[in-house]
Structure formats: C-alpha cells, structure tokens
Write a structure and sequence with these properties.
This protein has 439 residues and is α+β, with helices and mostly antiparallel strands. The chain has helices at residues 2-8, 10-29, 229-234, 237-243, 270-274, 279-292, 371-392, 408-421, 427-437, and strands at residues 33-36, 58-64, 73-76, 83-87, 93-97, 112-114, 118-120, 127-129, 135-136, 147-152, 166-172, 178-179, 181-184, 187-192, 214-223, 254-264, 301-312, 315-327, 331-337, 342-353, 356-365. Strand 20 (342-353) and strand 21 (356-365) form a beta hairpin. It is globular. The structure holds FE2/S2 (inorganic) cluster and fe (ii) ion.
C-alpha cells in the first residue's frame, strides 16, 4: 500500500526534497550576512568647511571580539591615538599606549603577551601590566621597575648645557597610559577622553544588550566626512522623508514613509514625548527606556523614535517602530519592534583618521526570523546609508547654519547640536598637542 503511494507520488516527493534542500541552502547562505565596503583614502583637496574637533570624548568600538584571540596583540592608530590592544591568558582585553617607555618601540607590532595581563616589548623585553599600565620587573611579581629618564635640553637646536645635550629629568617608576576597555555584545570598545580627569572616571557605560536575539551579521562602510555628520543624520527628522523614501532603486511604486521624533534623554517630558499610539509598542518602548536610561547616563543619551511605513501602489502599511539611543558621540542602538519580530541594530562609528570614518551596523534578530529576512533588513539599512553617504562624502561641515525655526525639525537640530557639542570639551587642546608630536 505504502509502496504504491510512494510510486504514484514519486515525482512530487523528489520535487519537494529538491526544493526543501534549495530553500535550506538559500536560508543558510544569509546566516551571517556581512557587507564590507572597500576603504578609500579621503581626497585631501575636497573642501570640508570649518570643523569641530575630530575625536569627541566617548566610547569607540575598535574591533570585534572574534578578531582578538587569547595571546593576540594588535595595534590601532584610530581616533588620533596609538594603542596596543591584547588579550591576556585570563581572556581579558587590555589597551595601553602603544609606544614603549624604554626607547619607543611599538608594542602592538610584535609585542608578546606574558602571563595573565602583561605585554612584553619586542625590542628589549621590558614588561608592562595591562591592568595598571605600570612598567614591571616581571609579569609574575608585577613589582614596579625603577628607571631614570633623560631628555634633550633642546632637541631641535642641539643645545649643550654643561657639556651635555641630554639631562636626567626623572627617577622612579614609569607607566604607559592605560585605556579602559569593555567587551560587550561581541565587540571591544575603548574609552577615549582628552581630559585627564575623565581617564579613570568614566561617566557612563556602553549598553550591555544582553540580547535574547541572535547575532545575524554586520555591514561595514567607510565615509569621508566629519564624525558629527553621521549621528546628526539620526536626529535630522526632515531628511528621512526626502532622502530615504526609496526601498528599491529600480521602482518608486514601493516607498518608505517615516515619522520621527528625537529628544534628549535628560528632558523631563521624555516619556510623554515618546508615547506611542500602538499599545504593544508603547509597552516595549517604556520597558527599554527604563532598562537603558538612568540618572547617571541620561545626560549622554539622545532618544529617537522612528515609525516606518511602506507605501505600495498608494496603500500605506505600518512596518515597525524603532526606538534609538544615541549614546555618546559614536554609538547608536536601534530597537525595532513590530507585531511579527524584534530586531536590534548596534551602530558604531569609528574615526580611523580625520574625515575617514568606519561605520558598522551589527544586526540581532529573533531566532525564528528567516536568515534572508534579517539579511534583507541589513541590506536595506546599507541602501539607506549609501544615500546618506553621497551627501556626506561631498558636503562641507556647516558651522554656520540657517534654520527655519517655524519647523520642529530645525528646532530639534539646534538642540541636538547643543547636546553633541558637549562631547568636544577638551578635545581641541588634545588634538593640537597630538599634531605637535607628529612633526
Ligand atoms: S624599546 Fe621597549 S624594551 Fe626597549
Ligand atoms: Fe539618513
């Protein structure tokens, strides 16, 4: 009986198996969808306008966790700093100034991880502790090394004093500047602050997404503009309906429509302003606002709410709402909520150099969401980013702007700029000093 049924339906069974297999392969293909744009050096001759400092104070994402194994050492020269990053045998990530206090070798190029938390210079073997930055006698004892420091009287003019060009300027212990690093959500972040008083006194932490969602992939793009252009775009309500309406480049019959709000988290009416007309979104939004905003970090957060609609042949459908947190100058977390899914985007912007910014989006989705759906969402995000990039790569930084104060959009932009400018405190002085060191 079964045999007869099998023979009668043989073709159907084969077709079903083949299609299931193809579907499965297609499904798996987008499991970790990664979009990587080629980095191109910025054109130095392009006009850029009068800009604020280039590396505002904040948390910066330097690399992903899977790019740094135990005992691995890397050098980064992002954000105007030179930093060695390494993972000790205790699995912890450490970040120190890259240049050895002995004779200036780069610890990030050939340095060796020693014991739990130390790194050894590749030139003469001096050892530095990642926990403190101290130069130590050995990675076991961690006793501080005693050194004498010498300096030129005048390095440029070769000036002699008492028959010597050099003089002893210090005796005692030395250390390399230690940067605070955090490993969260599969990424490694480092605190860069130009001000001495905030080196160890960090005013807010990056978010621990602690997500129940699956990591689904990442997009990496490079933009040639001032860092502020990118987060400012997230607060620029008006440009969404102007620049971001196309879902596909080949047709205008399917279009996006947006409704956006942007508000500083420290404002008292935040919850009122963010109230959503759909109860299930309201509940979700209130929950995440409460989870991530607290008394100590609210000053450093700008909250965004974005309703997304799709218009097909004139009919409008609600797609999702996104609640976004701009945390400090270089991190954005976007929580998308619809009846069908939850998706989180973690965006980070990292200035590799002035006017050369790496923008990354990592996407996390419900485990039941098909891989190609999350891949398509990341792809759509990249499409929207590419529309912005055409503007950013060619614009000047507007230091003097003409606003239309009859519109909420422009009023919001002024208030947003006032908020973001706080991240530049102390940076100009620091950047000038860095440039003086570069001669
Ligand atoms: S330069 Fe680092 S030990 Fe000599
Ligand atoms: Fe945009």
């Amino acid at each position: 009986m079964v045999y007869v049924w099998f023979c009668d339906n043989f073709q159907l069974i084969i077709i079903t198996i083949v299609f299931s297999l193809l579907y499965y392969l297609y499904y798996k293909k987008y499991r970790f969808y990664v979009f990587r744009q080629k980095d191109e050096a910025p054109n130095p001759n392009k006009p850029r306008g009068k800009c604020p400092p280039f590396y505002p104070n904040g948390w910066y994402r330097l690399l992903n966790s899977d790019q740094l194994n135990i005992n691995e050492v890397k050098h980064f020269d992002y954000c105007g700093r030179n930093v060695v990053i390494f993972r000790g045998t205790n699995s912890k990530v450490y970040a120190l100034d890259a240049f050895c206090s002995h004779m200036g070798a780069n610890l990030g190029k050939g340095g060796i991880v020693k014991n739990k938390s130390c790194i050894q210079c590749p030139f003469h073997g001096w050892v530095f502790d990642g926990e403190t930055g101290n130069c130590v006698v050995s990675s076991e004892s961690l006793a501080k090394k005693q050194v004498d420091q010498f300096e030129y009287h005048d390095i440029k003019e070769a000036t002699k004093v008492d028959g010597n060009y050099l003089y002893k300027c210090y005796s005692g212990n030395v250390n390399l500047k230690k940067y605070h690093a955090r490993e969260l959500n599969g990424t490694i972040l480092v605190w860069f602050d130009s001000r001495e008083e905030f080196q160890d006194n960090i005013p807010y932490e990056p978010f621990d997404l602690n997500v129940k969602l699956d990591y689904r992939g990442e997009s990496i793009n490079y933009v040639n503009c001032h860092i502020q252009e990118i987060p400012e775009n997230g607060a620029d309500i008006r440009h969404f309906d102007f620049l971001h309406t196309r879902l596909f480049t080949f047709t205008s019959l399917i279009q996006f429509e947006w409704k956006m709000l942007s508000h500083r988290a420290a404002e008292e009416d935040l919850y009122e302003v963010m109230k959503h007309k759909h109860e299930f979104i309201n509940e979700f939004k209130t929950k995440i606002l409460k989870t991530f905003i607290n008394e100590s970090n609210k000053k450093y957060i700008n909250v965004i709410s974005l309703d997304s609609y799709v218009k097909i042949f004139g009919w409008k459908f609600f797609l999702f709402n996104a609640t976004g947190f701009q945390l400090g100058p270089a991190l954005v977390y976007l929580f998308l909520k619809s009846k069908l899914f939850e998706v989180t985007f973690a965006q980070s912007i990292t200035p590799l150099k002035k006017f050369n910014i790496r923008v990354s989006h990592r996407i996390y989705a419900n485990s039941y969401l098909p891989y190609f759906v999350s891949a398509f969402m990341l792809f759509s995000e990249v499409q929207q980013l590419i529309s912005d990039m055409l503007i950013w790569n060619n614009k000047i930084f507007g230091s003097k702007l003409s606003y239309n104060l009859k519109t909420e959009a422009d009023k919001n932009l002024i208030s947003w700029r006032n908020w973001y400018a706080g991240f530049y405190e102390g940076c100009n002085e620091f950047e000038k000093k860095q440039e003086a060191l570069d001669w």
